[in-house]
Amino acid sequence: MQTPAPFDYAKATSVADALALLDKHGEEARVIAGGHSLLPMMKLRLARPDALIDLNDIAELRGIRIEGNEIVVGAMVRHAEILSSAILAEHYPIFREAEHMIADPIVRNRGTVGGSMCQADPAADLSAVGSALKGTAVIQGAAGTRTVALRDFHEGPYETKVQAGEILTQVRYPIRPGAGSAYEKVERRAGDWAVASSGVFVVVSGGVVTDCGIGLTAVGADHYCAPAAEEFLIGKAPTEENLAAAAKIAGDSCNPVADQRGPADYKAHLAYELTLRALRRAARSSQGA
Amino acid sequence: MTALDEAPLSAAGNPIGFGRMHRKEDVRFLRGEGNYVDDVNLPGMLHSAILRSPYAHARIVSIDTSAALALPGVHAVITGETLAGLGLAWMPTLSYDTQAVLATDKVRFQGQEVAFVIADSRYIAKDALELIDVEYDALPAVVDAKKALDPGAPIIRDDKEGKTDNHIYDWEAGNKADTDAAFAAADVVVTEDILYPRVHPSPMETCGSVAHMDPVTGKLVLYTTTQAPHAHRTVYALVAGLPEHKIQVISPDIGGGFGNKVPIYPGYVCSIVGSIVTGKPVKWVEDRAENLMSTGFARDYHMNVSIASTKEGKILAVKVDVLADHGAFNGVAQPTNYPAGFFHIFTGSYDYPAAYCNVKAVYTNKAPGGVAYACSFRITEAVYAIERIVDCLAAELKMDSAELRLKNLLRPEQFPYTSPTGWEYDSGDYEKTMRVAMDIAGYDELRREQAEKRAKGEYMGIGISFFTEGVGAGPRKHMDILGLGMADGCDLRVHPTGKAQVRLSVQSQGQGHETTFAQIISHELGIPPEDIEVIHGDTDNTPFGLGTYGSRSTPVSGAAAALVGRKVRDKARLIAAAALECSPDDLEWELGRWFVKGDPTRGKTIQEIAFAAHGSLELPEGVEGHLDAQVVYNPPNLTYPYGCYICVVDVDPGTGQVKVRRFIAVDDCGTRINPMIVEGQVHGGLADGIGMALMEVIAFDEDGNNLGGSFMDYLLPTSMECPDWELGETVTPSPHHPIGAKGVGESATVGSPAAIVNAVIDAISPFGVRHADMPLTPANVWRAIQGRPVRTDMAVE
Ligand SMILES: Cc1cc2nc3c(=O)[nH]c(=O)nc-3n(C[C@H](O)[C@H](O)[C@H](O)COP(=O)(O)OP(=O)(O)OC[C@H]3O[C@@H](n4cnc5c(N)ncnc54)[C@H](O)[C@@H]3O)c2cc1C
Q1: Staple partner for A47: which of A41, A151, A173, B98, CB 3.0–4.6 Å?
Q2: B701 with B736, same domain?
Q3: Which of A2, A263, A277 sits opposite B287 (nearest CB)?
């Protein structure tokens, strides 16, 4: 059994309470959501917070709902809830497709959207989905609430715009009528982190792509996205040739590093291959096929 | 298809003898009522943790334990220096090498044991580890086995006097001259470098122990994760000088072994020393990373394999050069005369006259071990080598791989068959088994489908593996471990009411011994299996024997159980005769009862006889009371289970992903005692095979950092990667085993990796690929297709 170093623990009852507890326990306190990233690091003693502020009882951080033309997902929404959400399935099949391949049911029952975004793992799948969909993060602190585009949310591996004393409360995604979306991931085994993933949405209207987003993970894509590839596609017909050219731009924009999941050339190839496969399916589905 | 008649059912619905029944032990396992080492809690017990080396190779300059000792709740900190004072800093391995218990001079692999903390709780012990200050002087590490013997390579074992290189041994088998001649005369020669990478058994339960040295009685009770409790007891006596009659080794429920729990680990020794030092029971249980990084790994064989044949595909000879990476200490567990285990059974299931192998073993800065993970003493490597090279030959000859095998398989009339490397295969009808597998697979149809798919640019592959194992070590005149002959005892007591207890030296780690051995006694005596208790895992209460590994429990202890049952049956005959007032010669046995020949109504059941044996019945001269017996079984030969496996995969060349679509496994393990348990063993082994073929590997970076030290990095297969197994059987009983049974515990682990790899290579052969090393992860498959295969034992670049 792996054992963490000693720490204090407090259960927050509301966002205000959580912020107060963070303030009280100081710089070395951390919030805990599902604990599936934080606890393993603590057990390996790679993380050693002085105190854990537990967000699991905070009702206002839960739920998936539509507000205006946005889908709002609370920070404490579990992976399993995303997987089974009718709202998300209707607007963005990319969520279901991604969630099917995130970890395993045990992790999905506990791990959260907020934890996933704030962990900022360079191979996180929801980060790629969030960047593809160009969502926004809602961050709350003692000074109030602010929003940050998800494409600006991540500062780098394991670093986000959430400052000490703040928490992420929501993630919001714009609704795009007629969008098709898809997620493609290669993993070495069910439940493993991505060797590479690509998630996209495409809106095809009047025979051309009018809007699209490409998200990538585990391949060293800046902010988990490929804006140059998106620009290339806008206004073009979703032909195999155009999709492949866009996927090529996406693949070339990545900067993967070799590890035991695979060498860099392979990951770069996957960035291309998976983006192409996702674009094909998303474009087809936007065209009602 | 079974060679046996159906057994009658007991009142509880179990077969009286052989047949399917639920495992008796599952009642407690399914309720979470198993009792594992970590469940053992003794009054006053202390906890412990091991400080491990972050370096693969470094000199220890100094160790300061004062801050750790000052932490409240810490009772003692033991270092190599403490142990050196007791003469215990080094211990012998099972291969007559030495291994550091706690490092004194140098650390030689990442994760090596450096200090041992004893504290009130596991938490405090781990906190204290962070307070131990070790100053290291880092040394260059030997990571690549191929460079271990380079001039100027750092010398790892400078603890051994006069050691000037990293060489361990050279060993050969077969006939070199004949083999060279056969190669020279052959039409076709195919050679391939084939790596069986380092993998780890990773049992669900990690290793651990609870040691209690009673300061008053001087008796040591050691609860420990061991597959061989008796062998461990004797080794502790020999090494530590503890009197053997005062050592009780208890191996409670074991959560998986696969060879991982055969060696003696430094943690066990430290828990014993810790108990001596503190006067209290001391528990040591390693965590997952410690298990993966420091305990007995498996394989790590770099094999250069060559095959010679006629142009018609008649195999003439095979030779193998092996570079064996044994890590920092030669901790391989195997019979003394066989430093490379049973690797030289690599000639496989085929009929050809000449074979030769040469094994060169080297030290590297990696964890010690080498024979583990259900490998039947390296038959896994042997089967992989021959089955892979036969496929390479088929590719070279442009011949169907099934046809090539059928052309070369040993024929039934050749048994008993003496192989070119000296094994005596006891029995087999190989072609029959292969045909059953091909029928289940629908082989010709699969080949047709493959051709159609290829035309459409879809990559489907079909892989075959035909394996022969030699298990059940072994005849004591050839086989011993540290001088202990590999024969097993067995005691049987039938109580007055006809219920029985059978005592065995072997130790179940999930094989279902409590059921199988009860069924064997049941088969011999007609006592229902639910009335027979199997007692094992406690050296004070069981006879001596060498333990469970190498698929030896059924071949050796299973034979002992059958024979002890027969001994009791013979005694029961004398007692029945006394009770029936007739001559024993007038009696005839039917299951569970002796009766008078020609008068079946006059007889005594085994239960009646048991009561009479303990009662007031006057017994004939020379017949002692009670109904007990003991035997020691020394096997005359190994048993030779075999099988044919066929795997069907689909490969996505754009991503390199492999999907195992079908897996057909036809095993011939002789008599099937409990077919359900046999199938369970096969299912588990097939999943192991998927793991090794597609994802498992412990690689190292150039500094010797272990890149497989957690389950995030060392991947085990899940049900998602496993197809519905399609099993079949043939039954060719072992002629020399009392009930005709052959071991099956490792068959599927041994036989399946080659089938999977062969299928993947078959799928991507249109890209010109003839071989790629395991594990065939998506990246490795893609790179093989690109013609730039990766080296899987090193960090990916
Ligand atoms: C075996 C396994 C496999 C996995 N596989 C994948 C995979 O394939 N793909 C994938 O994307 N993920 C994977 N994960 C990670 C999984 O998605 C985690 O659940 C997720 O990364 C973290 O969510 P959590 O709620 O458990 O966060 P926690 O572990 O509780 O927290 C993670 C970090 O986020 C911070 N945090 C949490 N919530 C907030 C908040 N509201 N505001 C500010 N900071 C916050 C915490 O302080 C901590 O630093 C895997 C995890 C495991 C254990």
Answers
A1: A41
A2: yes
A3: A2
